[in-house]
């Protein structure tokens, strides 16, 4: 008799929608009849849970196998046991333990490919730098060799693991972490998201980030988005310099007043946003003080009616007004969207 723990299988996705009502050939055993029936013939038994993704994907193939094998004169039976309703059978044959298993695949040159079955168990403890990606994403494809190089360089570093998750195959993991674009790089500690990496995607920048996060204490983590050691490239435009300052690339402008409370709260975030684009020559993060006499006409011409007002310009033309959350992460994602970064 052969037993199958379906949660340990890695199977291709099936496009066919399959329900339990379609399973007319597979023999279903319970606590009451399992021992008696398996003593009569050889069996190939799948111990499963209805909520198990791999089990659901295996179901059509398992039913096809049963249709071919489960003839009256056959000495083999293709069967299954639902471990959520008949747990005693599964426990007796170690099915329940296997269904709950989270065996993590061995890393290839330090890089671990995680799935819906292995993700939670793997990141539950320790420090992890995870790339959430889609195979069709151009930016993901460009990052792939750099990510592999990063993992290889840290292959023997026990203080951190480098992993990746294909969001087209393991969407539930990506949904749990609110992945909105590809690639998304998250720093996870003890199962919880600590930081989203927003910096340059060069090998050197990524490795420096890992070393910084590995040695970060609690206070450092809270400041990880601030990069206080990086000089600010934030420029302030005036009525005289405005036209020339927005002529090339993307220019994200904060129109503000020094006395405005919301402007004051946004100021450090706006400063840090400018640092995030320090190495990108196509993006400028700037500000305009609308209370200065030299800028009053400019702010009037740009239809500034309240503070702060955040406008995005491309090659000298206004293309969008930002009205979303004023977190660093959301502001960064907004600019990246207009740079052409892949979105879900």
How would you characterize this protein structure?
This protein has 13 helices and 14 strands. The chain is elongated. Helices cover 33% and strands 22% of the residues. The protein is of the alpha/beta class. A five-stranded mixed beta sheet has the order 5-7-6-8-9. It has a five-stranded mixed beta sheet with strand order 10-12-11-13-14, with helices on one face. Strand 6 (127-133), helix 6 and strand 7 (161-166) form a beta-alpha-beta unit. This is Thioredoxin domain-containing protein. Residues 1-19 form the signal peptide. Pfam families: Thioredoxin (PF00085).
Which structural class do you get from the secondary structure elements?
A: alpha/beta
**Strand order of the biggest β-sheet:** 5-7-6-8-9
Strand content: 15-25%
Helix count equals 13
What is Rg? 28 Å
Low-confidence stretches: 2-21, 95-105, 217-232
Mean pLDDT: 80
First-last Cα distance: 46 Å
Q: How many β-strand runs?
A: 14
Assembly type: single chain
**H/E element sequence:** EEHEHEHHEHEHEHEEHHEHEHEHEEH
Query: Main β-sheet: number of strands, strand sense, barrel status?
Result: 5 strands, mixed
Please bin the fraction of helical residues: 25-40%
Protein name: Thioredoxin domain-containing protein
Organism: Molorchus minor
Keywords: Redox-active center, Repeat, Signal
Pfam families: Thioredoxin
What keyword list fits this structure?
single chain; alpha/beta; 13 helices; elongated; PDI_thioredoxin-like_dom; signal; Thioredoxin_CS; repeat; redox-active center
């Amino acid at each position: 008799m052969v037993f199958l723990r379906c949660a340990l299988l890695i199977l291709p996705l099936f496009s066919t929608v399959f329900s339990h009502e379609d399973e007319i050939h597979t023999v279903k055993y319970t606590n009451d009849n399992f021992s008696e029936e398996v003593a009569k013939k050889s069996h190939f038994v799948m111990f499963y849970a209805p909520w198990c993704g791999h089990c659901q994907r295996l179901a059509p193939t398992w039913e096809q196998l049963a249709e071919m094998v489960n003839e009256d004169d056959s000495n083999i039976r293709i069967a299954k046991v639902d471990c959520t309703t008949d747990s005693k059978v599964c426990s007796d044959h170690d099915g329940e333990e296997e269904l709950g298993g989270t065996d993590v695949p061995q890393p290839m040159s330090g890089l671990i490919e995680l799935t819906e079955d292995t993700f939670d168990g793997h990141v539950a403890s320790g420090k992890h730098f995870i790339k959430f990606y889609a195979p069709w994403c151009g930016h993901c494809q460009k990052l792939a060799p750099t990510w592999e190089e990063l993992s290889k360089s840290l292959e023997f570093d026990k203080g951190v693991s480098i992993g990746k998750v294909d969001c087209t195959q393991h969407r539930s993991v990506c949904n749990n972490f609110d992945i909105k674009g590809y690639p998304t790089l998250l720093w996870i500690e003890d199962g919880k998201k600590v930081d989203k990496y927003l910096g340059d995607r060069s090998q050197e920048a990524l490795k420096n980030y890992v070393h910084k996060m590995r040695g970060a204490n609690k206070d450092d983590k809270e400041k990880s988005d601030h990069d206080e050691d990086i000089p600010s490239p934030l420029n302030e435009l005036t009525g005289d310099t405005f036209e020339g300052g927005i002529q090339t690339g993307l220019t994200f402008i904060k129109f503000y007043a020094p006395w405005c409370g919301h402007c004051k709260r946004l100021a450090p975030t706006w400063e840090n946003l400018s640092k995030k684009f320090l190495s990108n020559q196509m993006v400028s993060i700037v500000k305009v003080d609308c209370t200065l006499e030299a800028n009053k006409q400019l702010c009037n011409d740009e239809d500034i009616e309240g503070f702060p007002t955040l406008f995005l310009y491309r090659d000298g033309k206004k293309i969008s007004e930002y009205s979303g959350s004023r977190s660093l992460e959301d502001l960064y994602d907004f600019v990246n969207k207009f740079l052409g970064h892949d979105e879900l």
